Amino acid sequence: QVQMVESGGGLVQTGGSLRLSCAASGRTFSIYAMGWFRQAPGKEREFVAAITWSGVGTYYADSVKGRFTISRDNAKRTLYLQMNSLKPEDTAVYYCAAKQGGSVATRAHEYDYWGQGTQVTVSS
């Protein structure tokens, strides 16, 4: 079992930045690939970014490429999402997720554990 708690969400103006964190506890954090997903009201949960267990491999949705950066610190058992140049369409609840096995994945059903989510609101 892996328990995860997101933090760092909030209200920001268009063009602003936020850094999300996801603190993990439970089984060995470093053996899991990790991902960020988001869900806006009335929409399905969508993939944002993912990172391999080592942190070397990363993958991004086209909509956030060049603006968001995913990273992890296995010693601190923490996953991060640096979000720059935020747009109103980035408004959503953001979730971190853990996947057994080290390879990245972009589909929600491939992930085994989820945090409770943190709200990000970008005002125009």
Describe this structure in words.
With 124 residues, the protein is mainly beta. Helices cover 0% and strands 52% of the residues. The protein is built from no helices and eleven strands. Strands 2, 4, 5, 6, 9, 10 and 11 form a seven-stranded mixed beta sheet that branches. Strands 1-3-8-7 form a four-stranded antiparallel beta sheet, with no helix packed on it.
Mind describing the biggest β-sheet? 7 strands, mixed
Low-pLDDT stretches are none
Helix content: under 10%
Counting H and I runs of at least 4 residues, what is the number of helices? 0
Give me the Rg, rounded: 13 Å
Structural class: mainly beta
Shape annotation: globular
Mean pLDDT: 94
> How many angstroms does the end-to-end distance come to?
40 Å
User: What string, H for helix and E for strand, traces the elements in order?
Assistant: EEEEEEEEEEE
Tell me the β content.
over 45%
What's the total count of β strands? 11
What are the main properties of this structure?
124 residues; mainly beta; 4-stranded antiparallel beta sheet; 0% helix
Short description:
The protein has 124 residues and is mainly β. The chain has strands at 2-7, 10-13, 18-26, 32-39, 46-51, 58-60, 68-73, 78-83, 92-100, 113-114, 118-123. Strand 7 (68-73) and strand 8 (78-83) form a beta hairpin.
Give the topology.
Layout: E1 2-7, E2 10-13, E3 18-26, E4 32-39, E5 46-51, E6 58-60, E7 68-73, E8 78-83, E9 92-100, E10 113-114, E11 118-123
Parallel strand pairs: 2-11
Antiparallel strand pairs: 1-3, 3-8, 4-5, 4-9, 5-6, 7-8, 9-10, 9-11
